[in-house]
Design a protein that fits this description.
This protein is mainly α and 207 residues long. It has one domain: Cytochrome Bc1 Complex, Chain D, domain 2. The protein contains ten helices and no strands. Helix 3 crosses helix 4 and helix 6 packs across helix 10. About 7% of the residues have low confidence. The chain binds heme C (HEC) (2 copies). The site of one heme C (HEC) has 21 residues, from helix 2, helix 3 and helix 4. One heme C (HEC) binds next to helix 3, helix 7, helix 8 and helix 9.
């Protein structure tokens, strides 16, 4: 008993001291790696989003939304259907704890300033068509702000654009305040393209 107790204390001290110790990955994540990457950084070519480092609550909420159909995606629904609330929390915590990693290559930044301006300053401010700066919620450099605002930096441009058009069409909807729906419906196709390419070219690590 004494020995076992000491082992637990020692293990806790080691884990606390290293600060990086992680619980064993939830068993489901083996299935996710094929698309979201073993390191959770997604697949820019295929347009699969990175999950690593995203806010726990945000990821948890998305898995709930895929299961219950407020975010409609056939692939993700099949994976989310069998997950319990405890599974969603464990998976979200696991991906949150993975560090965002700088990719070997980022797409080139768009040459015109439309996307950067929209992200940092918004558009039409002072009119009845005011689009708030994306960074006012998603953080400087699009790095995200926990718990509710996901990182956009380094996400595939095609993925970002698809989310914005999904909000326009209603196939993705938030349960309560509809922040993104209200913004997406004001964006033109040219603005969606520009802002998606802008965020895709930003490093997910901020440097
Ligand atoms: C066959 C490929 C594939 C597999 C396997 C897969 N996903 Fe996905 N995942 C996607 C696609 C595609 C999207 C984007 C869906 C959309 O556009 O709404 C996505 C989106 C997500 C999102 C939302 C990310 C965000 O930023 O909003 C989460 C969370 C997620 N997947 C978790 C998982 C988990 C957990 C697993 C394993 C249990 C998994 N995925 C397995 C393809 C996959
Ligand atoms: C008022 C706050 C707010 C502003 C401003 C804002 N967003 Fe968002 N955004 C959110 C919230 C909240 C979510 C998460 C929605 C959810 O839970 O489904 C989100 C999610 C997203 C996502 C989904 C990311 C993912 O991983 O799936 C994209 C893409 C996005 N926003 C793009 C933008 C762009 C582009 C702008 C600027 C034109 C913008 N947002 C401005 C609040 C905001």
């Amino acid at each position: 008993m004494i020995k076992a107790g000491m082992f637990v204390v020692a293990a806790a001290l080691i884990a606390g001291g290293l600060g990086t110790a992680q619980a064993a990955p939830p068993p489901q994540v083996a299935q996710c790696a094929g698309c979201h990457g073993a390191n959770g950084m997604g697949n820019p070519v295929a347009g699969f989003p990175a999950l690593a480092g995203q806010p726990t609550e945000y990821l948890e909420q998305q898995l709930y939304a895929f299961k219950h159909g407020t975010r409609r995606n056939a692939i993700m629904k099949s994976f989310a259907l069998g997950l319990t609330a405890a599974d969603r929390r464990a998976i979200a915590t696991y991906y949150h704890d993975l560090p965002a990693i700088a990719p070997t290559a980022l797409p080139a930044a768009p040459s015109d300033a439309t996307g950067a301006t929209l992200a940092m300053n918004g558009a039409g401010i002072g009119t009845d068509h005011a689009i708030p700066a994306c960074d006012s919620c998603h953080g400087a450099g699009g790095l995200g702000v926990a718990p509710a605002f996901p990182r956009l930096a380094g996400e595939p441009a095609a993925y970002i654009a698809a989310q914005l058009t999904d909000w326009q069409s209603g196939s993705r909807s938030e349960t309560d305040v509809h922040l993104m729906h209200n913004i997406a419906v004001m964006l033109s196709p040219a603005q969606i393209k520009a802002v998606s390419e802008y965020f895709a070219a930003l490093p997910p690590t901020g440097k």
